[in-house]
Amino acid sequence: MAVNVWGFVNVPGQYMVPLETDLVSLLSYAGGPREDARIKRIRVVRISAESDSSAVIDIDVKDFVDTGDLKENPVLRPGDTVVVSGTTFHLVNKVFELGFRIAMIVQAVYLAQWYAGRD
After folding, report:
1. How confident is the model at residue 66 (pLDDT cuts 50, 70, 90)?
2. 8 A C-beta contact, residue 37 and residue 11
3. I need a labelling partner for 38 at 20 to 30 A (CA). Which of 7, 60, 85, 99 fits?
4. What's the rounded Cα separation, in Å, for the pair 50 and 44?
5. Which of 38, 90, 94, 88 is nearest to 61 (CA)?
């Protein structure tokens, strides 16, 4: 069956996996979650072909890893899309990275003006 993996895994994409593949197995096929992945809230978007509707299921994979609770490791269905988001730390890191880049540009402009004024 075809399933999709998006977000903070090492190799996102569409995978052809055996029927009865569970979420943790799919994450393993995708190279596992990245270090900055938020595994406490992985989303499974499930499309129902019969009723033309969809559902979003939130899964706590960390709870499965810590306790072995099987309800946190559901069996996937054909067409499911698994979305692994990033942690808050990842977002904060990106904001600081953007701020650093802006500061570098401002500094370069200031230095260029300063050198131009010395002539």
Report:
1. very high
2. no
3. 99
4. 18
5. 38
Residue type at position 17: V
Residue 75 has pLDDT above 80, yes or no: yes
Start-to-end CA distance of the chain, whole Å, equals: 70
CA distances from 37 to 31, 56, 108, 113 (A): 12, 18, 35, 43
Q: What is the pLDDT of residue 83?
A: 96
> Alpha-carbon distance 5 to 13, whole Å?
5
Contacts of 73 (CB under 8 A, 6+ apart): 22, 23, 24, 59, 61, 64
Strand partners, 75: 22
pLDDT tens-digit series, residues 39-61 = 999 999 998 777 677 899 999 99
